[in-house]
What does this fold into?
Amino acid sequence: MLNYVIRRILLMFPTLLGITALVFFVMAYSPGGIGGQALEADAGSDSAVAAKIREYYEKRYGIHKPKIVQFGRWLNQISPLGLEIKDDGSLGHFGFKAPSLGDSMEQNRPVMHLIRERLPLTLLLNLVSIPIVYILGVATGIQAAKKRGGMFDTVSNATQLAMWSVPTIWAGVMLIGLLASRQYLKLFPTSGLYEVEAAHMAFLPHMVNHVLVRGYLLDVIWHLILPVICLSYGSSAFLTKLTRGSMLENLGADYTRTARAKGLPENVILYRHVLRNSTLALITVAAGILPSMLGGSIVVEWIFGIPGMGQLGVHAVQFRDREVVLAVTLIGGFVSLASQVLRDILYALADPRVSYE
Amino acid sequence: MTELGTIAMEGPSDAHPATAQVALESKGFLRQTLATVGKRYTARLGLVWIAILAFCAVFAPFIANSMPIAMKWKNQWYFPLFRFLTPADVILQIVFWTGIIVYVYRPRSSLHLIVLVSVILLLSILAQMLIHPPGPQKYSEYLLASRSGKAQSVWTVPIRYSPEDHMDDLQQLRNSPPSVHHLLGITNGKADLLSNMIYASRIALSIGFISTGIAVVIGCTLGGLMGYYGGIIDLLGMRLAEIFNAIPTLLLLLCFVAVFEPNLYYMMAIIGLTSWVGYATFVRAEFLSLRDRDFVHAARAAGIPTWSILFRHMLPNGITPVLVSASFGVAGAILAESTLSFLGIGLTGEASWGGLLNEATGEGGNFYWWIALYPGLAIFLTVFAYNLIGEALRDALDPKLLKQ
It folds into this structure.
């Protein structure tokens, strides 16, 4: 098992290399090239300024060098073992050094700082959504499978297929428009993750002069409701369908008949026998749900104005901010590869028949 | 489609001796599946919606157009609508009517099909070369004459607004909600929403079909090669698939789109290029199990060239799971296009449902419910329709469900 895990982790490196290379060369061979947008925005039509900025970029990011060399430089920069990079951009001697994600071209700040600011917001959004997705999806799936063809099953089947087809962009725009905009019900905030004044509030809700103050926690929850709905309805519909399908398969299996013949109570059959065997199918998709939710949070963050990783990525791509795009790709790729490895480990843990030896 | 059906008949998957004896002509596996799908009413609903969309896409200029079909003006008849048809409109008409002819006459041999396809291609190239419409004109003389009532008799199409009519002269309010004149309201740019949506159905349908087609072709080719040869090709192919699989699709799409000028053809190619992985893995798995079957050995012994073994003998036997996921893939491609247009990095200058949806929230946080509701509903219904068809296809192909 340990051997297998180590092999899988080692296999992640060539894949990550491929991912970053793909994104890097797509950007590098684009018309305008890396940093082209930045040049245009900063310099405008002033050719003297443009030349200065170009010189700066050449020194700092090496964009005049051949593309393969540029990619090599970037790889050297993120690896903890390699050539030392001096302040003026020249290379020093070989050895251990601090890995760095480089500086953002647009914001002139280390990419690491940007990510440290943005990542918690995206993680918060996803960490709140994932349990909701699982609890809702699995519970509805079990209920639907209990009485196949019954009222609940029919209704949940129809709604899950419809929900799965509702585009997130439409759901987001309609929810904001009807529930949050000034013209209609002004129930929710339209953007952001907290109000400005929430920073000064206490954490928990409390009373000040007989007026309820929300507190930081309630404020964040209040802001999170709509984005979380948008992020979770599609995946939970998918999970409902999957749970139902695999529960039905196991309910028709021979061991279920044996359990019934032994006279086991229905609940024990359902939750201790059938559900446990159905979790295998749930584990297989768990690996797919996490990356797809990270992708979905790009759209959700855009609609709800949450300054998370998704927004950072979209903006960086538009600006062709090389270092930021590569960093976001690296993190996104790592998360989805890691969740695949995790899936395979969980698979072996859940099912003793699975062995990787 | 007929060709695929006959090819599938040769394979071992078409094993229904009983039905073959009863009917003089046995049905292909594919045709049987399609017949089963056609019986489901949910799939039928989906097909009906796609048919409506296809009708809107083909006949868009004859449904919504500010130019009259025919008008009598100064004692002379004019036909402005036909003068203003673009090459794309004419090509769509050619393809549509040849499609009808093919459907009615059902050519038996593939030669007929080749002739038909080349006629379509030739006519399309001619249309592209010969037709030079004057382009959209806000204040064309025909439009002014017909609207001011100077013309003696005017025959118009049902919806009298083109998508690029910005109606500055009609003193319409911007963003006015649905009314008798504008059934679905007016967009931010003072254009008729319904007319915009009818023309946008072209983009949705073509992106869905063509980009999925590209993805299926890439996926089948790579997957087939990987499954058939195995070894180093398989290893490299699977790493490539893993790479494409591990990047969040939307981010990859964003990279490609932000970097290349987004026009319709690039968009199709890009969405196709980023979504082939699923098909490749399906076809690979099928080919791994097929490559040691007797009919493949027989084909190899008979000296049939490898491409023929791969794509004429093995592929028809392994294509069925691809069909199911292609149906979902079309839905995914439409979603991807509308999401990109919504984010403002999609097509520019052409009406698309996602782009229209983006206009729903105007400056100052105003919300125009009709601009959000109708284009979003159109995306939803189209995606829903393809998902329904995909579900029906999957159920029709599922041997476990067939037994019950």
Summary: Chain A touches chain B through 49 residues (CB under 8 Å). The first strand of chain A starts at residue 81 and ends at 85. The radius of gyration of chain A is 25 Å. The longest helix of chain A spans residues 266-304.
